[in-house]
C-alpha cells in the first residue's frame, strides 16, 4: 500500500496555511494545530536542512540543533532525493532578504 500525502484533508490544511499573512498569524495557527514538540521537531528539521545547504558537518549540525544523526541523514536524503521543496523555499527566502 502506497502512502500519499495528497488527500482532501491535507489540501484543506495547506489552504489554511496559505491564508496566513505574517509570522504572528503563523504562531497563532501552528500553536493550535501542532503540539509544542511537533512544532519544535518541524523547525529543527528545517534548521538542519538550512545548515546542510551551508555545507555544515553532521557534527556541527547535531551540536547546534540537538538533532540526531538519523534525523540529519533523513533531511539530507530529502535534500538530495526529495521534491526540491526545501530548495524552492530557501531560494525564495534568499531572494526576499
TrEMBL record:
InterPro entries: Trp_repress (IPR000831), Trp_repressor/repl_initiator (IPR010921), TrpR-like_sf (IPR038116), YecD_YerC (IPR013368). GO terms for molecular function: DNA-binding transcription factor activity; sequence-specific DNA binding. It comes from the Bacteria. Pfam families: Trp_repressor. PANTHER family: LMO1763 PROTEIN, TRPR-LIKE PROTEIN YERC_YECD. This is TrpR family protein YerC/YecD. It comes from Marvinbryantia formatexigens DSM 14469.
Amino acid at each position: 500500500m502506497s502512502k500519499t500525502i495528497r488527500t482532501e484533508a491535507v489540501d484543506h490544511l495547506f489552504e489554511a496555511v496559505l491564508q496566513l499573512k505574517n509570522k504572528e498569524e503563523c504562531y497563532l495557527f501552528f500553536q493550535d494545530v501542532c503540539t509544542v514538540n511537533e512544532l519544535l521537531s518541524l523547525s529543527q528539521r528545517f534548521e538542519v536542512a538550512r545548515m546542510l545547504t551551508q555545507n555544515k558537518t553532521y557534527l556541527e549540525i547535531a551540536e547546534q540543533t540537538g538533532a540526531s544523526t538519523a534525523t540529519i541523514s533523513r533531511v539530507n536524503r530529502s535534500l538530495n532525493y526529495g521534491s526540491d521543496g526545501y530548495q524552492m523555499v530557501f531560494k525564495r527566502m534568499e531572494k526576499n532578504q
